Amino acid sequence: MTENYGACSFCDMPLTSDHNCRKSGIAKVGKPIYEQSHIIRFFSYDHLPESLQEVSRPFGILALQLDMDLPAGPEKSAGLRKLLEAKDCMVRAFVEAQ
Ligand SMILES: [Zn+2]
Q: Which of 28, 39, 55, 93 could make an SS bond with 19 (beta carbons 3.0 to 4.6 A apart)?
């Protein structure tokens, strides 16, 4: 099964049923194909300076893991949005401390 649901917002590789996200380290082997939530792209941290990447990375990995493991629905969407808000707050806290 090589059905493609677009590119992974994390590693830019095609989202296939055996997607092994080389950036997050999360493997999806054996799990059903899923449509990655749009909000996942806002958890990417490649464009950030190294110090900010360290603050953002755990949120990104958690978001991707939860997005893969939980069924789509309003609660997952709300949870991912709150996680994004928390990530942005932590980035601002880090920047303020510099
Ligand atoms: Zn990926």
A: 28
Ligand 1 geometric centre to CA of 25 (Å)? 8
Query: Residues with beta carbon < 5 A to ion ligand 1?
Result: 8, 10-11, 21
Domain boundaries, the chain: 39-96
pLDDT tens-place string over residues 2-37: 556 788 888 888 877 777 777 776 766 555 556 788
CA dist., res. 56 & res. 85, Å (int): 11
Cα(98) to ligand 1 centroid in Å equals 31
Residue 97 Cα to ligand 1 midpoint, Å, equals: 31
pLDDT of residue 2: 52
